[in-house]
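Researcher: Can you fold this with adenosine monophosphate in place?
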Amino acid sequence: MDCIFCMIAEGKIPSKKVYEDSDILAFHDINPQAPVHVLVIPKTHICCLDAINSENSDIVKKIFEKIPEIAKQAGITNGYRLISNCGEDACQTVKHLHFHILGGCKMQERMI
Ligand code: AMP
Ligand code: ZN
């Protein structure tokens, strides 16, 4: 499958890893939008939030359980924002479920 995040998960494309286990990979975003910008992905291909269902939601639970540890591991000490873009209107560019952890500064723009 021609999916850049699957290739990163398989080690075929290098990444700056923050955390890895058998199901999850967290790595620094190549184009950071904050002093700390980490992406957390399931190693299995799920295209986006819209594709989460009762068959595959265990990995989402696992990701959310690990996010505090990943944020800490990335050096975030004073809070962070978690974002997952889903679909065209949200400007999702990589069609493999991922969660952006943004931190290391006071967020300026209020998106929500
Ligand atoms: P989104 O726009 O929510 O789909 O986010 C995709 C993110 O993936 C963007 O923030 C990109 O900078 C990031 N990205 C794309 N290719 C790579 C890569 N090879 N390594 C790390 N981050 C990447
Ligand atoms: Zn993929």
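Model: Folded with adenosine monophosphate in place. The CA atoms of residues 7 and 23 lie 14 Å apart.
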